[in-house]
Amino acid sequence: MDTMPSNKTQMRSPAKSFEDLIVWQKAHQWVLNIYRLTMNFPKQEQFGLTSQLRRAAVSVPANIAEGFKRRGANDKARFYNIAQASLEECRYYLILAHDLQFGEGRHLLPEVETISKMLEKLHVTQP
Fold first, then answer.
1. How far, in Å, CA of 52 to CA of 101, rounded?
2. Hey, which end of the chain has fewer CB within 10 Å, N or C?
3. Helix (H) and strand (E) counts for the chain?
4. Which of 83, 90, 89 is nearest to 119 (CA)?
C-alpha cells in the first residue's frame, strides 16, 4: 500500500501573508475584472453605480487582508463575514448593471459564489 500522501491530502504550508491566501488572490483578480467592466459604464454613473460597485468589490480582498492579521477567531470571522456581505452587495450591483444595460457583468457572478465558498472554509479553518 502506498503511504505517500496524495495531492488532495497534502497539507499546504501556513500562509505567511494574506497574499498567500488563494481566496485573496481570486478576490483580487475579481476586483480587477470589476474595474475593467465599470470602465465602460456611462459617465453619469461615475459617482453612482460605478463608485458603489468598485467600493464594495475592493472591500472583499481588503477585509480578507485585515482579517488575516487579526488574532482572535471571532475577530477574524467578523472581517471574513464583512467580505462575504460585500460580495452579496456586488452580486446585486452586477444584476442591476445588467438590467440597466450598462455592460455584461453576469459572467463575474460565478466567481462571487466561488469566493464566498472559499471564505466560508477559511472562516472555519484559519486559526
1. 17
2. N
3. 4, 0
4. 83
Homologous superfamily in CATH for domain 45-125: 23S rRNA-intervening sequence (1.20.1440.60)
Element (H, E) at 9: none
pTM for this prediction? 0.84
d(CA 66, CA 80): 9
Q: Which three cell numbers, joined as nine digits, stand for 123?
A: 472562516
Give the tens place of pLDDT for each residue, 88-115: 999 999 999 999 999 888 899 999 999 9
What is the dihedral angle through the alpha carbons of 71, 77, 81, 84, rounded to the nearest 10 degrees?
Answer: 80
CB neighbourhood size of 32 (10 A): 10
Nine-digit cell string for 104 = 455584461
Say how many C-beta atoms besides its own lie within 10 A of residue 77's C-beta: 16
CA-CA-CA-CA dihedral for 77, 80, 81, 83, to nearest 10: 170
